[in-house]
Design goal:
The complex is a heterotrimer of chains A (253), B (290) and C (345). Chain A is α/β, with parallel strands linked by helices and 253 residues long. Helices cover 36% and strands 23% of the residues of chain A. In chain B, helix 2 crosses helix 8, helix 3 packs antiparallel against helix 8 and helix 9 packs across helix 10. The chains are: A alpha/beta (253), B mainly alpha (290), C mainly alpha (345).
């Protein structure tokens, strides 16, 4: 029986009078890929913020590798092994693209995995950019990050997460704003992340593309988990379709 | 003795609240810490004085006109000084700071320093309350402070404009996307803040002479009260003024006159160090923490 | 089909800049001078000036000291700004350094050789501790607290009458050597300038810049930004507390004027005029402003009015500052080029 790498129990968070997260529980084994879906405002981003420490929960537990990290400071969760991307990804605009990666590469956790040495960070940054699909010999890594087109910004965001050598990668709407071909080119990368044994959590709206990558999905609505399971099972549940469509429409599955 | 203390503490609190309310409103509604708040207060005082003494206007008319003029000045300050640098916190802060200093020192240079510079009180004379003699002007200050506090609470919670401004303050992205014009909102909040500074000046300055250093002191007082009470909270403003108001009276009575200033300066430093959102500040906390 | 010609501005590097940008600069004297002359002039001027005191007089020597002190405060400010911290109270650091040096020599009779290093280091530590709680917040709160601290401390000293109260502590031992101490100051200025520039462009300094540009991303990269900001504050405080300690022994006196607003507003104006973010900009700004300030001294309060207006105008009108503007002109030319537009009927 493999221990779950992350186990969320009865997590609750209210802002003012609204329950953004209402008794959410789930667990993941190492190497699993989870999709978190739900209509707008269902609390997906709040859940990510709670797990990564950017928001403190009111109640509940988050066990990461057996340790309760609920309420931890965000930089601490990073150093324990959780990396997250941001929906509105803002790079360090004024720095060149590869310099954007120097900061995560020199983070305490990444440094520790290199045995405490600083090493040639520039080379490591360029190498990482290559891995996410930037061509080595182009001038792009040396350009200002502010000038990057959207698809590349997303790749940079992904690279930033990978630089932290995480155990869990949480991606908040990575696919948003990407074209079909851009998504198709990023999917092999996500597959490789899974193959390396990392646990993946993806919050998405682009369901078709998401379902090709993840193993199981949970559905949130109004802060509550209303379904969990394999995509095809979950999507036929009445609760889920009415959450998305707001009425009793059955999909012909 | 105790009633004396209670009543003068209340007066002091009212003075503090009036002085702070313009600054707090502007900061809460537009995120702009108006370092020129004290300078506007001072300018209001001198403007009223000039209207009364050079143009011969009646005090009431002069003061009303001053409030309007200074309000417009506030809006113009936003339009010509803050708007070009909106969003760049560094430049926003530096420009209002520089403007404030320039205005205050300008008056000092021009020689507005003497006993001639004072404003007439609304009503002369005093009254006995519970064995304590208190002049009408001080009672009026308490009254004005209360009225303005209530009016502002109503304005920001129940009128369309007020709610729109609060919406902007809490989430600029969303508010922008539903069509509330950020620049107009900011201009309005600065104009209002300035007008309130003028009201405070009109009510409080008659208690003594207009001293140039008030330009700096009023800003610091406003900062102390706003920070202690928390932004976006009329209740916080109210309580913050009471706490600092009474603390100042205690300090000046038992420790000495300069200790009053030490009280509000310490309040700023201590509150920022321990609980920067103040007693009741709500929404800013998320922003602050990260 | 019509073709019309319109104009647009373009900016390109000057020929001499391009030619002198790599190792081949050594091949041409002219290119070499282009690169080194500006820096050489400044360095030479600073090195020679103290020796001219007999020609130029003690008064201008004092102006040099004031200028160098403001340069140190400006460099300190720029270091804080590179981590996103806006200081409105450089006087705080200056005063802390001043008083520690003054107290150590007044109460214990230490000589400047000991008080100055101690005051610099201990002053920086104390200042950082005072400011530490605020560092978990955004930049504007740092501005507010640095604004209030020098005022609070000066009123507190006035009210409690400690550390000499309103009279201050006087008859403190002077620094040995009149020319020697000027060179010490100049040396510290160069050291700070060099060290800060290198630091900020290093990988370590990159974290500071990251905090300035996008603190959330730096947190998400696993850094404890409160701790990093504290390091920035400590490093930035060092030249400022040193300046305070130096001045205490230069005037052989320390008192409430050590927390004067001038020490906050002058370096700020110097940096904004000269150009924030470059370190040299602040120094340039101070060199322009301080002599100007001396000339204006007889005008009383008008001096401050002019400064604050300068600060205002530059903050809004030329935010890049004089240094970047001059550098741009030195290395690039702007010209109008023609564009052809082909319009089809």
């Amino acid at each position: 029986m493999i221990e779950p790498i992350i186990k969320v129990s009865n997590l609750c968070k209210s802002f003012g009078g609204t329950k953004a997260t209402n008794e959410v529980s789930f667990e993941l084994k190492p190497g699993e890929a989870l999709g978190i879906i739900g209509p707008n405002g269902s609390g997906k981003s709040t859940l990510i913020n709670l797990i990564s420490g950017f928001v403190k929960p009111d109640k509940g537990e988050i066990l990461f590798k057996g340790k309760n990290i609920a309420g931890s400071a965000p930089h601490k969760t990073v150093n324990l092994g959780i990396a997250r991307s941001f929906q509105m990804s803002r790079p360090f605009y004024n720095m060149s693209v590869y310099k954007n990666l120097i900061i995560p590469i020199s983070s305490p956790r990444a440094r520790k995995s290199r045995g405490g040495k600083y090493g040639d960070l520039d080379e490591a940054a360029i190498h990482l950019l290559e891995e996410v699909g930037f061509e080595r010999d182009s001038q792009v890594p040396y350009k200002e990050a502010g000038a990057l087109p959207h698809g590349y910004l997303k790749r940079l965001e992904l690279a930033r997460c990978l630089a932290l050598e995480p155990d869990i990668v949480i991606l908040d709407e990575l696919f948003s704003g990407m074209s079909m071909s851009e998504i198709a080119s990023v999917v092999p990368l996500l597959e490789r992340i899974k193959n390396e044994g990392k646990t993946l959590i993806m919050v998405e709206h682009r369901l078709t593309e998401l379902f090709k990558i993840i193993d199981k999905v949970i559905v949130l609505n109004f802060g509550m988990k209303i379904a969990e399971g394999l995509p095809r099972d979950v999507m036929t549940q009445d609760a889920v379709t009415s959450a998305y469509l707001g009425s009793e429409v059955k999909t012909g599955a | 003795m105790v009633t004396n203390f209670l009543i003068y503490g209340l007066v002091n609190s009212a003075i503090l609240m009036l002085s702070a309310i313009g600054f707090s409103l502007t900061f809460g509604l537009s995120g702009v810490a108006n370092f020129a708040h004290g300078a506007l207060y001072l300018t209001a005082g001198f403007t009223a004085w000039m209207l009364i003494n050079y143009l011969g206007l009646s005090p009431l008319v002069a003061m009303l006109l001053t409030v309007v003029l200074i309000g417009i000045l506030g809006a113009l300050i936003y339009r010509f000084i803050l708007m070009p640098v909106r969003g760049i916190i560094l430049s926003e802060v530096i420009s209002t700071y520089a403007l404030g200093v320039a205005m205050i020192e300008f008056f000092r240079w021009k020689g507005f320093v003497s006993f001639d510079f004072s404003l007439p009180p609304f009503m002369k004379g005093g009254i006995d309350i519970l064995g304590v003699t208190i002049d009408y002007q001080r009672l009026i200050i308490i009254g004005i402070a209360l009225i303005i506090a209530i009016f502002l609470w109503y304005f920001t919670h129940y009128t369309n404009t007020g709610l729109a401004l609060r919406g902007m303050a809490q989430d600029e992205y969303t508010a922008l996307s539903i069509g509330i014009e950020s620049d107009w909102a900011a201009m309005l909040s600065l104009g209002l803040g300035a007008a309130l500074a003028a009201v405070a000046a009109a009510a409080i300055l008659p208690l003594g002479i207009i001293s140039i250093n008030m330009g700096y002191d009023i800003f610091l007082i406003a900062l102390a009260v706003s920070v202690l009470g928390g932004l976006e909270s009329t209740l916080g403003l109210f309580l913050g003024s009471l706490i600092i108001g009474y603390a100042m009276v205690i300090a000046s009575t038992y420790l000495g006159p300069q200790w009053g200033q030490v009280v509000y300066l310490s309040a700023i430093v201590i509150v920022l160090a321990i609980k920067p959102s103040g007693l009741f500040g709500k929404y800013k906390e998320l922003e602050e923490r990260v | 089909m019509r073709t019309s010609i319109s104009h647009r501005k373009e900016r390109i590097d000057r020929g001499i800049k391009v030619r002198s940008d790599d190792i081949f600069v050594l091949a041409s004297m002219r290119d070499l001078l282009y690169v080194t002359l500006p820096k050489a002039i400044v360095i030479l001027a600073l090195l020679i000036f103290p020796l001219l005191k007999d020609v130029v007089g003690m008064y201008w020597e004092n102006v040099l000291v004031s200028t160098l002190v403001i340069i140190l405060l400006a460099l300190s400010w720029d270091m804080l700004a590179s981590a996103g911290l806006v200081s409105l109270g450089q006087a705080f650091f200056f005063g802390v350094g001043s008083y520690i040096a003054g107290y150590l020599s007044y109460r214990f009779g230490w000589s400047p050789l000991f008080t100055i290093p101690t005051a610099t280091l201990v002053g920086a530590i104390i200042s950082t501790l005072f400011l530490f709680p605020v560092l978990r917040l955004r930049g504007i709160y740092f501005g507010l607290i640095t604004f209030a601290l020098p005022l609070l401390l000066s009123r507190l000293i006035e009210a409690t009458k400690v550390l000499g109260g309103t009279e201050g502590m006087s008859a403190l031992p002077p620094l040995p050597g009149i020319t020697g101490k000027l060179y010490l100051l100049i040396f510290v200025v160069f050291l700070t300038l060099f060290a800060f520039r290198r630091l900020v462009s290093s990988d370590y300094g990159l974290v500071f810049q990251g905090i300035r540009d996008n603190d959330r991303a730096v947190i998400a990269a696993g850094f404890n930004i409160q701790w990093y900001k504290a390091q920035a504050v400590f490093l930035a405080a060092l030249p400022a507390t040193f300046a305070g300690a130096f001045v205490t022994h230069h005037f052989q006196f320390v008192g409430i004027p050590a927390f004067a607003q001038d020490y906050s507003i002058l370096p700020l104006t110097a940096v904004v005029v000269g150009g924030a973010g470059t370190f040299i900009g602040g120094a340039l700004g101070a060199v322009i402003l301080m002599p100007l300030s001396e000339v204006l001294r007889e005008f009383g309060s008008l001096r401050v009015v002019i400064y604050s207006l300068l600060l205002l105008i530059f903050a809004i009108g030329l935010p890049e500052g004089v240094f970047k503007y001059v550098k741009r002109k030195y290395t690039q030319i702007e010209r109008l080029t023609t564009m052809e537009e082909v319009k089809h009927d």
